[in-house]
Amino acid sequence: MDLPAFEDEAILQWLVVEQDGEIIGGCYFEKTVEQVHFGLDARATAAIQGVLPEVHASCWDAGVRSIFLCVPKEMDTAENIGRHVERSGFEKRDDVVFYTLAIRRGA
User: Fold this and answer.
1) CA dist., res. 13 & res. 49, Å (int)
2) What is the Cα–Cα distance from 96 to 99, expressed in whole angstroms?
3) Total domain count for the chain?
4) I need a labelling partner for 59 at 20 to 30 A (CA). Which of 30, 31, 32, 106 fits?
C-alpha cells in the first residue's frame, strides 16, 4: 500500500486500532479530488484538456495526493472519454471495486 506519512497534509484523520501495544489495523481519511465533467461538447473537452495540467498541479500544491475520475460504463462515449483521460495521465484500474458514500444532504 502507498501509506502516507502520519503527518501528511493530505490526511484529515487517522483511526488506528492497537492490541497489547501493537497496531493491528486502521484506516485514514484522505483529501482527494473527484474530477467530474458535464456536457459532451468536444469544444469544451478540448478547452478543459488545455488547462488540466495547471489544475492538477494546484491540487498537488493544496496537499491532494490523488484525483479520481469515474466514467459510467453504460455511456456511449465511455471508450472515447477513456482515451482523453488517459492522455491526461490517468490510469485505468480494473483491480478495484469503487463505492461511494454521499454524506451531504441531497447528494
Assistant:
1) 33
2) 10
3) 1
4) 106
